[in-house]
Design brief:
By secondary structure, the chain is an alpha+beta fold. The chain is built from 42 helices and 21 strands. Among the domains are: 31-209, Alpha-Beta Plaits, CATH 3.30.70.1230; 228-423, 3-Layer(aba) Sandwich (Rossmann fold); 429-507, no CATH class; 510-583, Arc Repressor Mutant, subunit A (Orthogonal Bundle), CATH 1.10.10. It comes from Bradyrhizobium neotropicale.
Length: 1017
């Protein structure tokens, strides 16, 4: 390690730097990422207050405000992480997670301002900023103390909000406001420009604490109806039936979000409708430090119920003995003037409060069946705890005490009062789907999404609601609750910030050893086996088994069906993700490195390079990430998973570039780009394909590697056929062929000739195209065929057959085209490679169009179109769609043709396939004309013809001209002149290029029209 002051090397045992003498400061190795709320507060213009004071006086001037700040933070469970002389930074939700960190921080801020204002010093005014976000939290040890530090961008936003706030105001970020809304009242201040942030950020101001109970806040946010809970409701029903024979206390026990409060209130309302009196209250996380805060709420509920009682029994305190009335008044914060009360010892007062509370509950129950509902016992204050225990133990027929609690906060007296504990479980799948149907709607279109949400949330009701809310708020789901539609694909469902703290709090209940094991499991994935976990964790067997048993009991990592082996899985994906996110980067890297080493050693994933690549990238072992990423790309390519292949090749390229620069590395980088081209070509990433060639050529120049430069130029030339103009493509292609012939590599020469032939074809030089591709075809069909890296000879031969076939079709040489098509089809059948089958279908459909059999053409092209879409062969999709539209057009299916041709044009635009955009536009215009919109058709054809002429697509220019002649009505002299001009231009271009069928059709049309001089008559 190194000294923080002078960066000198320090031995692990040194307490001081041997060079500069600075005290060694070490970060605790258990630092982790946390989702917390940060509070920043300071005294305004503190410099002006103390500038002229002596040091002692300056401290005395500011210390009361700092003490008030500390007290407010600690009252609401915050940790003061740093004092800043005139202010402080505090964190809520760490080191122990708390899902209420944002509301607690807001209440602490309100209390902080109140305390400082109450000092009576008008010169002491504070401002506060609050923000919720991820931080890295850790202990920093010095010679004399430990300080809990937080790091990350979140603390800077809190500081900027503090600096923006006005005197005695609290400014809050949107993230914090969303988490605390309902518990606190806010005013939106609009977007504010904060220093260091490029865009204005939404800012809120706290205007006060809310008087809503936690249940009312949760109920107001609820977006679903109550479902199922048949078993739990039956247990509660039997408990209510038994109250006539004696005491009955029931505790609903479950983790946050499981639905305890929802069930309790639904059942209590049923009892109320059946004539029961309801007394309800809740424990508050904000008031855990306030003595008798829970009991006060309970007593207020009793008094309210009594006041609303139709029998007019009045205030139940009236018939209590004097001491008990005083006890109740003390809890209710009412003034007491009785000397008997003030003379009592504290223990006697406590006893009197307990007796009075029990007596008043008994009094209420004596006249009416009563249910006392007390929620969230895990937050009960210590003073109220004993009194509630006494109430729950009352031997009183007609009284049902219904309690809720989380497992980690269950009171110790529950067993003593013989309460029935009802353990709450997640919903079953049917109930979860019913809940989702209520929120999203019954549409079967959302069936897959609903199943994903069920799996992601493990049917925890709160998690289901919050995931759906997040999807709606983000715009992924649109519409109204009960009728929502998915408008874009979802890669990950994510974890709403509202429930991150809920899950983090569960993780904090396990031991450090168990948490470490859980982190390894999180890195391995949602499902894993014990044997692999054992190898990586390297724990004594008893420790491992004890830890797994503990994690199973907490339902964080559970055993699954033994038929699947000794397997484990996370109860739901959210637990895995929060566990994984809690690790700092160095811990993650270490775990993934250990996993990778284990997999490589025992060969567990020898045939799964994608898994090895995943762990190598996260371990930041870039050399291995390059190797495994390349293997994963090749594997995906062999399966025609082109999008996946492109992704893995990108990972491999990026990883290799993170290794030290050497000529060998650069050679590997060039070869990798050459090999990756097939994935980018097939998946339609034309711009990226072009960039591969340019980048490889640049690198080849840098290391003076002529061979690799020729290869790179060949790849770039191929991309030019799709992304550039024919003139440029031909010039580049001719140069590449010349260099490839000089270099003497037959594989790259074959690809270069294929690319040049394609360029000639697009330029309308069909004879040159056929001759050039024929030379590559001859070599590839010979005894020693050669193809470049990343392409098999037969695959390139199929493309040559395809290209030559439709070149012959355009020239009217159908027998030659037929022979080549048969060869392409035979190779495709032999390889059974989707790419080859799609290429053969494309030329096969074109051949049937050339033979004037559009129905047969459509059948072939439809198969190819489906296959291309299924395998993500996006480069072929627009041309297949275009020719399929042409086949529909020839059959008279004009609506179908227009729809398919419009789709072809849009897909061609998205890919960047210039010639496909033009051809689909031409035939879309013909379909539009046949559907009656002649003017629109003429405009489209005119635009296509001008573009083709400007960019050098002479063959497409001729087709557009012939289309103009076809759709233009001979209704005026001007139109007749335009038709004649278009036909003659078509004939001229077709004659020069060798497009015999097009020339013949234009001549036939011209011959059928009466001509006088240079005009139609």
């Amino acid at each position: 390690m190194h000294c923080a002051a002078c960066q000198s090397t320090i031995e692990p045992g040194d307490r001081w730097c041997p060079i500069c003498g600075a005290i060694t400061r070490r970060s605790d190795p258990d630092s982790e990422r946390r989702f917390v709320t940060i509070l920043r507060a300071d005294v305004i213009d503190s410099t002006g207050l103390v500038a002229e004071l002596e040091p002692e006086d300056a401290v005395s001037r500011l210390e009361p405000a700092l003490a008030a700040m500390r007290g407010a933070v600690r009252q609401f469970g915050g940790i003061v992480s740093k004092e800043l002389g005139d202010g402080l930074a505090a964190v809520f939700g760490a080191p122990i997670a708390d899902d209420n960190h944002a509301p607690l921080a807001c209440h602490a801020a309100i209390e902080l301002v109140r305390r400082v204002s109450g000092l009576g010093d008008p010169g002491l005014q504070v401002r506060v900023g609050l923000h919720s976000g991820h931080v890295v939290a850790y202990m920093v040890a010095s010679e004399f103390s430990k300080v809990y530090e937080i790091g990350g961008a979140a603390q800077h936003l809190a500081a900027r909000l503090e600096a923006e706030a006005e005197a005695n105001q609290i400014y809050v970020s949107e993230a914090c406001q969303k988490l605390a809304d309902g518990h606190v009242r806010f005013e939106f201040l609009g977007g504010k420009a904060l220093r260091g942030f490029s865009q204005p950020l939404p800012v809120y101001r706290i205007v006060g604490a809310s008087d809503l109970s936690s249940w009312r806040v949760r109920r107001a946010r609820s977006i679903s109806r109550f479902v199922d809970r048949t078993t739990e409701r039956a247990l509660l029903g039997r408990a209510a039936e038994r109250v006539g024979t004696g005491r009955q206390t029931v505790l609903l026990l479950g983790d946050a979000g499981i639905g305890k409060s929802r069930l309790a209130h639904e059942f209590a309302q049923e009892l109320k409708a059946d004539g029961w009196r309801l007394i309800d209250a809740e424990c508050s996380p904000n008031l855990q430090g306030a003595p008798f805060s829970t009991l006060k709420r309970l007593l207020l509920s009793i008094l309210d119920a009594a006041a609303r009682n139709p029998d007019g029994s009045g205030d139940p305190r009236g018939d209590r003995p004097l001491i008990q009335r005083c006890a109740l008044d003390a809890v209710l914060d009412l003034p007491i003037s009785e000397p008997q009360w003030t003379e009592l010892e504290p223990h006697a007062r406590g006893r009197a409060i307990s007796d009075a509370s029990c007596a008043i509950v008994e009094s209420m129950t004596r006249h009416h069946r009563t249910v006392v509902l007390l929620e969230d016992l895990h937050w009960i204050d210590r003073a109220s705890d004993a009194v509630v225990a006494a109430i729950a133990s009352l031997q009183m027929p007609g009284l049902l005490v219904l309690l809720t609690s989380r497992p980690n906060g269950m009171p110790v007296w529950i067993a003593r009062c013989r309460a029935e504990v009802v353990a709450m479980r997640p919903l079953d799948d049917d109930s979860g789907l019913a809940m989702l149907a209520d929120m999203l709607g019954p549409s079967v279109a959302n069936a897959d999404l609903k199943n994903r949400i069920i799996s992601h949330t493990a049917n925890v009701p709160l998690f289901i609601e919050e995931v759906c809310r997040g999807l709606k708020d983000s715009g992924t789901l649109r519409g109204q609750w009960g009728d929502l539609a998915l408008v874009r694909p979802i890669d990950e469902l994510g974890i709403p910030t509202s429930i991150q703290g809920v899950i983090a709090a569960r993780l904090d209940r396990v031991s450090r050893q168990e948490r470490s094991l859980l982190q390894i499991a999180a890195a391995l994935g949602s499902r894993l086996d014990v044997a692999m976990l054992r190898k990586i964790a390297k724990l004594p067997e008893k420790v491992l088994q004890d830890s797994l048993a503990a994690l199973d009991r907490t339902e964080l990592l559970v055993g699954i069906d033994r038929d699947l082996g000794d397997a484990l899985e996370f109860r739901h994906e959210m637990v895995r993700q929060v566990t994984y996110d809690s690790m700092v980067e160095k811990v993650r890297e270490d775990i993934h490195a250990r996993i990778l080493a284990t997999f490589e050693t025992d060969g567990t994933c020898a045939d799964e390079p994608d898994t090895l690549c995943y762990h190598a990238v996260r371990a930041k072992d870039w050399q291995k990430a390059f190797g495994h990423g390349t293997d994963a790309g090749r594997k995906s390519l062999s399966r025609s998973a082109f999008a996946d292949a492109a992704n893995y090749f990108e990972i491999a390229m990026g990883s290799l570039d993170k290794t030290p620069m050497t000529p060998l590395r650069e050679a590997d980088a060039i070869d990798l780009r050459m090999e990756a081209r097939a994935a980018f070509i097939a998946s339609g990433h034309v711009a990226e394909w072009l960039d591969l060639g340019k980048e490889a050529a640049r690198r080849a120049d840098a290391i003076d590697d002529i061979g690799r430069k020729v290869a790179a130029m060949t790849v770039g030339a191929g991309a030019q056929n799709f992304y550039g103009t024919p003139v440029d493509a031909v010039a580049v292609g001719e140069e590449v062929v010349r260099l490839a012939e000089q270099w003497g590599n037959p594989g790259w020469l074959n690809l270069a000739r294929y690319g040049l032939g394609q360029a000639y074809f697009l330029a309308g030089r069909y004879r040159d195209a056929e001759r050039t591709v024929a030379r590559a075809h001859e070599q590839l069909a010979g005894p020693e065929p050669r193809a470049p890296i990343g392409t098999a000879p037969k695959n390139l031969l199929v493309l040559c057959c395809m290209m030559m076939s439709f070149t012959h079709i355009i020239m009217g040489e159908l027998d030659a085209a037929e022979q080549l098509q048969q060869q392409a089809a035979a190779i495709a059948e032999e390889t059974n490679r989707p790419y080859d089958r799609v290429a053969a279908a494309y030329s096969g459909g074109w051949l049937m169009l050339g033979r004037n059999d559009p129905a047969a053409a459509a059948a072939i092209l439809e198969q190819g179109f489906v296959l291309a879409q299924k395998h993500g062969i996006r480069l072929f999709v627009p041309v297949l769609a275009c020719h399929l539209g042409m086949a529909y057009l020839e059959q008279g299916l004009f609506d179908r043709a227009r729809g398919m041709l419009a789709e072809a044009r849009e897909e061609a635009k998205a890919v960047g396939y210039t010639s496909a955009v033009l051809r689909s536009s031409i035939y879309l215009a013909l379909a539009t004309s046949r559907l009656g919109d002649t003017q629109a058709a003429q405009n489209m054809l005119r635009e296509a013809r001008n573009t083709a002429r400007q960019q050098g697509f002479s063959g497409l220019e001729a087709e557009a001209l012939f289309g103009e002649a076809t759709v233009t009505p001979p209704s005026s002299a001007e139109n007749k002149a335009a038709i004649l001009s278009a036909l003659r231009a078509t004939i001229a271009i077709a004659s020069e290029s060798g497009a015999l069928p097009l020339r013949q059709r234009a001549e036939a049309m011209l011959n059928e029209m009466p001509v006088r001089g240079d005009e139609l008559i």
